[in-house]
Specification:
The chain contains 19 helices and 17 strands. By secondary structure, it is of the alpha+beta class. A six-stranded antiparallel β-sheet has the order 2-1-5-6-7-8. Strand 7 and strand 8 form a beta hairpin. Helix 8 packs antiparallel against helix 14. The chain is elongated.
C-alpha cells in the first residue's frame, strides 16, 4: 500500500488548498518535506491521522477542544453566519486497487453569539480497480475497510512522531498491538476463519449446521434443550467476559495515564515529599527554640541569687582592696594572749619583757593588729567566701551565655528552615496532590484486579459449560445417527470441526514462528541502528515492547526510558514488522502454489524522527528505511536531513514556507537538487 497524494484544505496551519504528491517509485521511494521548527510539519502528520481515522493525536494533558482544525486565518475572517469547511483527502493504492478517502467538517459563525460551531461532517471512501471508474464504499463499511489497510493500533508506529512519541493517543484508544501485528503478518485471516467456522457460537458455520440436526425423540429433544440452554448461557457469560476485558483495558489505560503523569512529574512529587519533611523539620526546630528558652529560664531562676549578687560582690572586694587591711596578725592569736605574756614578764621564746625592752614593743605592735583592735582577719574570711560566690556567679554567667548562644543558633536555623518551607510551599501552589493521585491509582488497581478475578471466574465457567456441551453433543450424535438427514449434517459438522482444528493447529504453529522470528529480528535491527551493547529489546506475548539492560545478575527491564530510548525501541519494532512483511511478500511472489495470503505492507510516515538522535544513529537508521518500506515519507529539519544519506532515494521533495509573523504556512514543491 502506498500514498499517492494528500490534499489539505484550510486544515490547521494550511490555508486554502495545499497538495503533496508522494513518490511511488520503487527505487526512489522517499518523499521529504523540509521545514523549520513550528512551521507545520506535525500538521501534515495530523492530516494523515484525520484522513485515515477522523481523529488527531491528542497530547497528554489536553482535550479535543484544545485543537482547532479550521485554519485560524480563515476563522478570523468569517463574518456572522459565514460558513467555511476544512477537509483532508488522501489517495492511496496497492497492486489491485486505488482508493480515495475524503473527510470534511463544515463550520458556521452563527448570529448573534458568533461562536464558531460545527455544522456538519462528511466522509467518503471510493475505490477503482485497474484505474477504472470510482465505486463508493458504503459509509458504514468505511472504517472497517480503512482498519484493514491501516490498523489504527499501529498508527503510532507507521505514523511515527519522533518528537512527541508516547505523549498522546488517537481518540483515547488503547493500542492492541498483538491484533494489529497479526493483521500485518497475515495471521488475522486464520483468526477470521476460526471465528467464522466455530468461534461465533450458534451463528458460526458449525453452529448453523448443528441447528439442522433434529429429531431423535423426547430424549434427544430434552438433551438438545439442555444443550441450547448451556449454549445460550455460554453466550451470556462470554458477553460478561467481554465486559470484563473491556473494563480491564479501561482501568489499565487509566492506571497507565496516572503512571505516566507521576513519571513526568517526579520532581514535583519529590518537592511535595520534601515539603512535608521540611514542615516536620521546621516544627521540630521551633520546639528546640522553645525548649532552649525554657531551659534558660529554669536555670536562671535556680541561680538568680548568685548571678544578681555578682555586682555587689565585685564592689565589696574592690572596697576591701582600697583599705590597708593587709594581714599582719598571727592566725588564731588574741589580745588576751599578749596581755598574759606581758603580765608574766617572759615571752614564750624566753626573752624578758619589760616596758623598755624591744620584745615589749613588738608585742604591743602585734596586739594592735588583733581583734577587737583589728578586723582584718574577719575580712580575710569574708573575702574567701566572696571569692567563692564570685566564681559561682561567673560560672552562672558563662552557662547563661552558652544557653543564649545555643538559642540564637537554633532561632537562626529555625528561621532559615521556615523561609525555605514557605518558599517551597509557594512553588507548589496549584500543583496536583500526588497522594491523591497514588490513592486513585491504587483504587483503579483494585477495580482492575476485581475484573481480572471476574474474568477468571467467567472463563472457568465457560470452559465448564463447553465441556458439558461437548459431552451432550457426543450423546446427541449417537441419537442423531438414527436419521439419514441428521447423519448428513453431522458429517458436515465433523468436517467443519476438523477444518477448524487444522486451521487452529496451523495458526498456533505459525503464530509461534512469527513471534520468534520477530523477536530475533528486532534484536538485530536494534543493534544495527543504535549500536547498543549493554541493552536489548524483547516482545512479550502481547507484543508489548520492553527494553532490557544488562546487570551483573542478567538482564533487567528498564521502565523509565529516555525519549531517545523510546524512539530507538519503537523504530526497531516498526522496521522489524516492515522488514518481515517485505521479505514475506517477496517470498510469496516466487511461490506459484502458495496458499498463504500475501501480507500487506505499509508506508512509513515519519514526523521529526531524528530530532532526538545523534548523527551516527540517524545514518544507521536512515539507510535501512528505503530497503524495508515500500514508501518512506519524512517531515524534518534541514540540519537532520544532512545526516540521513538518503539523497539518492528521494523521488519527491517539498519545502514548508512560513513568514515569521504569519499564522499560516504553505507547501512548495522543489526540484530534487534544491
Amino acid at each position: 500500500m502506498k500514498f499517492e497524494r494528500l490534499i489539505l484544505h484550510n486544515f490547521m496551519r494550511y490555508k486554502g488548498r495545499n497538495e503533496l504528491e508522494f513518490s511511488c517509485d520503487e527505487q526512489k521511494n522517499v518523499t521529504v518535506v523540509l521545514g523549520d521548527n513550528t512551521v507545520g510539519k506535525t500538521t501534515i502528520a495530523q492530516a494523515f491521522r484525520f484522513g485515515l481515522y477522523g481523529e488527531i493525536q491528542i497530547e497528554n494533558g489536553k482535550i479535543k477542544e484544545d485543537y482547532q482544525l479550521l485554519n485560524s486565518d480563515v476563522v478570523s475572517s468569517m463574518d456572522s453566519n459565514a460558513r467555511e469547511s476544512v477537509f483532508v483527502e488522501i489517495t492511496l493504492s496497492n497492486d489491485e486497487k486505488r482508493y480515495e478517502i475524503h473527510r470534511e467538517i463544515a463550520y458556521i459563525r452563527k448570529y448573534p453569539s458568533n461562536v464558531l460551531t460545527e455544522s456538519y461532517r462528511k466522509k467518503s471512501l471510493s475505490f477503482s480497480e485497474n484505474y477504472g471508474g470510482l465505486k463508493e464504499i458504503p459509509e458504514e463499511e468505511m472504517e472497517s475497510v480503512i482498519q484493514e489497510m491501516f490498523p489504527r493500533d499501529l498508527a503510532g508506529y507507521f505514523l511515527f512522531d519522533g518528537e512527541k512519541w508516547n505523549t498522546g493517543n488517537l481518540g483515547g484508544i488503547k493500542e492492541n498491538i498483538k491484533e494489529s501485528v497479526h493483521k500485518l503478518t497475515g495471521l488475522s485471516s486464520a483468526e477470521k476463519a476460526m471465528f467464522h467456522i466455530v468461534d461465533m457460537g450458534k451463528n458460526s458455520a458449525v453452529g448453523k449446521m448443528k441447528a439442522k440436526i433434529t429429531g431423535g425423540g423426547a430424549i434427544y429433544d430434552s438433551i438438545q434443550a439442555d444443550n441450547d440452554r448451556d449454549i445460550k448461557e455460554v453466550e451470556n457469560v462470554e458477553t460478561k467476559l467481554e465486559t470484563d476485558k473491556k473494563n480491564i483495558v479501561y482501568y489499565e489505560n487509566e492506571i497507565r495515564k496516572i503512571e505516566e503523569f507521576l513519571l513526568n512529574n517526579e520532581s514535583t512529587e519529590a518537592m511535595q515529599k520534601n515539603y512535608k519533611g521540611m514542615e516536620q523539620l521546621y516544627h521540630a526546630k521551633q520546639r528546640n527554640v522553645e525548649c532552649g528558652y525554657k531551659n534558660l529560664m529554669n536555670y536562671f531562676s535556680e541561680n538568680i541569687v548568685a548571678y544578681c549578687a555578682m555586682p555587689m560582690i565585685h564592689r565589696s572586694i574592690a572596697l576591701m582592696k582600697k583599705a590597708d587591711m593587709e594581714q599582719k596578725d598571727i592566725p588564731y592569736m588574741k589580745q588576751a594572749t599578749i596581755d598574759y605574756l606581758i603580765q608574766k614578764g617572759e615571752c614564750i621564746c624566753g626573752a624578758k619583757i619589760t616596758n623598755q625592752s624591744e620584745a615589749y614593743r613588738h608585742l604591743m605592735d602585734q596586739r594592735n593588729f588583733l581583734p577587737p583592735a583589728s578586723i582584718g582577719l574577719l575580712l580575710n574570711d569574708f573575702e574567701k567566701i566572696a571569692r567563692q560566690w564570685e566564681r559561682k556567679g561567673e560560672a552562672v554567667k558563662e552557662e547563661i551565655e552558652e544557653l543564649a548562644l545555643e538559642i540564637s543558633k537554633d532561632q537562626e536555623s529555625f528561621e532559615k528552615t521556615y523561609n525555605q518551607y514557605i518558599e517551597l510551599g509557594r512553588k507548589l501552589d496549584g500543583s496536583e496532590n500526588f497522594e491523591e493521585k497514588r490513592a486513585e491509582q491504587k483504587r483503579l488497581e483494585v477495580q482492575r484486579n476485581s475484573y481480572i478475578r471476574s474474568q477468571g471466574i467467567h472463563e472457568e465457567k465457560i470452559q465448564g459449560l463447553k465441556t458439558r456441551i461437548e459431552h451432550r453433543e457426543k450423546e446427541l450424535s449417537s441419537l442423531a445417527l438414527r436419521n439419514a438427514e441428521n447423519r448428513k449434517w453431522k458429517s458436515r459438522v465433523e468436517i467443519g470441526k476438523q477444518l477448524y482444528q487444522k486451521i487452529a493447529g496451523d495458526y498456533k504453529k505459525k503464530e509461534k514462528e512469527v513471534f520468534e522470528e520477530l523477536n530475533k529480528r528486532i534484536q538485530i535491527n536494534f543493534h544495527q541502528m543504535f549500536n547498543a551493547k549493554d541493552k536489548k529489546i524483547v516482545l512479550d506475548k502481547k507484543y508489548n515492547i520492553k527494553m532490557m539492560y544488562q546487570t551483573e545478575h542478567g538482564y533487567t527491564e528498564e521502565k523509565n526510558l529516555s525519549e531517545g530510548e523510546k524512539i530507538a525501541r519503537n523504530f526497531a519494532f516498526i522496521t522489524t514488522i516492515m522488514e518481515y512483511n517485505a521479505e514475506k511478500k517477496k517470498s510469496l511472489k516466487t511461490q506459484d502454489n502458495s496458499t498463504e495470503l500475501e501480507p500487506e505492507t505499509l508506508p512509513i510516515v515519519l514526523d521529526g524522527p531524528f530530532s532526538k538522535l545523534g548523527a551516527e544513529n540517524i545514518g544507521l537508521i536512515a539507510k535501512i528505511l528505503p530497503e524495508i518500506a515500500d514508501q518512506v515519507i519524512i517531515f524534518m529539519l534541514e540540519k537532520d536531513w544532512e545526516h540521513t544519506g538518503l539523497e539518492d532515494y528521494v523521488g519527491s521533495r517539498y519545502q514548508i514556507d512560513k513568514e515569521s509573523d504569519a499564522k499560516s504556512a504553505s507547501l512548495r514543491r522543489c526540484k530534487l537538487s534544491c
